[in-house]
Amino acid sequence: MPLPVRPGGFTSYGVFSPQPDRVAIVTGGTDGIGYSTAKYLARLGMHVIIAGNNEDKAGEAVRKIKEETLNDRVEFLYCDLASMQSIRQFVQKFQRKRIPLHVLVNNAGVMMVPQRKTVDGFEEHLGLNYLGHFLLTNLLLDTLRDSGCPGRSARVVTVSSATHYVGELNLADLQGRSYSPHGAYAQSKLALVLFTYHLQGLLAAQGSPVTANVADPGVVDTDLYKHVFWPTRLVKKLFGRWFFKTPEEGAWTSVYAAVAPALEGVGGRYLYNEKETRSLAVTYDLKLQRQLWARSCQMTGIPDGTGGVFPASLPRREE
Known about the structure:
One of its GO terms (molecular function) is oxidoreductase activity. The chain is α/β, with parallel strands linked by helices.
């Protein structure tokens, strides 16, 4: 079943061809943007695996997606991105299925939560939003490489936010000893952009049939706002229908990044409303990308296998 043409108001990405031979993982796919992303991909015929930590919500989400898309190849696998052990167990369960992986959508996240730590001792925004996806992506890279091929690359789509424009990355204090909910959230979203650009540079330098791009969904009416200041919640409640995108609209850029023919073989892009745009200037700093990557490998306990690969092929767009 083709994906419906997007209604007016933003750039339309038209109708995509069915993709029943593709497999996708969507983190945080039980509600909000992730749910809508999973549903769109399922509507294209993909085998969709929702990764999340709420089994009660997951059962209902899977049932509804199957019912609305007439696609029975939708399933849930438990994955708590705030736990390195849970992420590793998720990857092991997925790999035991012995199926390919063509699309990984790093969507899950928390926003402006009170100061608290993951089970591994990381500040929650850093640990769940960023390090969890960093580890998950790295553990799945071999499967993505094996699944992609020239002319039909596998794709990593990482959801960031315009909040990254006000983010600051302090490598000496990633845990945020002086805690600010907004600052911690912005830093996690900034880290995701840096990570994606470095990953794309490495993939390109290695000639891998995998691309990595960032999707910015815009301001979307989801439950993520439950922890923001009450005036913001009030504005959302009163004027959300006029100033906020719906989760379905927020998912469009992720879907575009995951399937659009125009992005075949194209990576290292920051996409907003299905268009490439410039991210914060510091995200193009190759040295900072490498430093964050190395530090992230240390924090997640994986080897830094970049060796002498220098991702110089990543386009620079800070000018």
